[in-house]
Automatic annotation (TrEMBL):
<protein>
    <submittedName>
        <fullName>Uncharacterized protein</fullName>
    </submittedName>
</protein>
Amino acid sequence: MNGRLLPWTGSEEKPCYLIGDGDGYVSRIADQVEGVQLGMAGSLLDHTAELLSGEGLTKEELHYLVRRLIESLREIKRIAESRGARLAGAADQPIVET
């Protein structure tokens, strides 16, 4: 069994890990949360492109936009690290032929 980095943080922004086989309830919730986070990141990118293509973006709007982009990038980085670790762990598993 390997630990899975979950797509959310605990208190004080510390990472949360799940120990298990990856088939349980929390794993399914984590998969759903990752899906939502990836979808929101795509929407944020589209919205950012729209805002930057126009004129009249205030300093406050730009600051807000950059904060949301940072949050989204942090979430996506966590997802990438989690998936990369799971892929590396899967590579260490023996292949069982049936």
